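Lab manual, section 2.4: Encoding a predicted structure.

Procedure: take the sequence of the chain (177 residues), apply the prediction step described in section 2.3, and record the output as structure tokens. A sample record is shown.
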Amino acid sequence: MVAAGAALADEVGLAGLTMGLLAERVGVRTPSLYKHVGGQEDLNRRIAVLALHEAADAVGSAVQGYAGRDALAAAARAFRAFVLEHPGRYAATIGMEPSGPDDPLATAGQRLLDAFTAVLRGYEIAESDVDHALRMLRSLCHGFATLQAGNGFQWSADIDESFEWLIAFTDRGLRAM
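Recorded output:
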């Protein structure tokens, strides 16, 4: 049910995902969905967990065997591709807070953070600055990918060139630390 909800969210946007629409998509009556999920909030939470695991898998796989700028580029490209391919499920991750350390959302989110933390090991960043560097990477990758997914770059410069420029700029900044 969650996978079907995630696919539908990617199609219609997270805001457009409803229990009724999902029921229609999977060919059941809406009350039947409640055997699988506790309601809209539970569905969105489960989609967020799925999305974080999928993003962690994509980024983690992409950075295998790379370090420094190559790892940064691989992680950024994988994250961007995930957001562009799955905008609805990625949107479910925004603002969703874990209820505690054992919450599957916390575990999934930590996996994604760990993948980006591995990228930072290729740079000489003080331990006290790692959280700041992670927030910077998240802001840059999230911002670019969500703007692109929302058709926010409507001028003539090539989007891929701009993204590569962002990677190079970030790499220079991280090396300068």
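Check your result against the sample. The first helix runs from residue 2 to 12.
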